[in-house]
Amino acid sequence: MTVAEVEARFEVSPMTARRDLDELARRGLVRRTHGGAVMPTSSAHEDSFARRMKVSADAKRALAHEAVAMLSPRETVFLDSSTTAYFVARRMIETGIPATVLTNSLPVMELVFNDGGPNVELIGIGGNLRRLTRSFVGPNAVRTVEGHFADQLLLSVKGLTASGMMTDADALEAEVKRAMIAQAGESTLLVDRSKLTVRGLSVVASVADVSSVIAHGFSSAEINPLIAIGANVRTIDADRAGGVDAARRPTA
Fold first, then answer.
1. What is the pLDDT of residues 132-155, one digit of tens each?
2. Is 252 part of any domain?
């Protein structure tokens, strides 16, 4: 939309039209161009943590139940800044499993601090705070991750491409996730079916680079391409939360 179109549609002055477009751009709702504004690309768009908490909540809860069930007591666990990881942290607290959590997610830190009790130790990964996602990123965050080893990593991503690439809206978030994958003994991607319809701007890694994938509500046609590139996939039936069908990559 051009400045002139804003003027005509809303009957405002050129100064008001430009100011309002600048404000929309500041909020990340549009991208300013010469003489107007356009919608940001879907791959670069990123919702707030609070808004993402309401998306596919039942699926994330089911994924968290499955992920925590596979943990052993007293393991060290990386949790990324995804809302799915928040559901995992909540489930860990509910079950009372003893563990050490390492995370760059401020909401997870607050949850563990307030409700974790003596069973869950916390190592906060600091850095530059992204207010939109309430997560710490940047060189300091990556260095903190690289200074630790964890038994497990439980993570999610903004989108999963048909070719099996995990993507995130922000390059700094993707960098922290890659560092966690490298520093974890086992890494598990937790994804619900909504991840197949979106794509982030930055590539994190291939699903073949993580130890396993737990997928909620995926059909066989959606799982097979992931298995073909070497992913180890388990599915949770969307109609039977907690019921698990195994879909393993072929063995030689």
1. 999 999 999 999 999 999 999 999
2. no
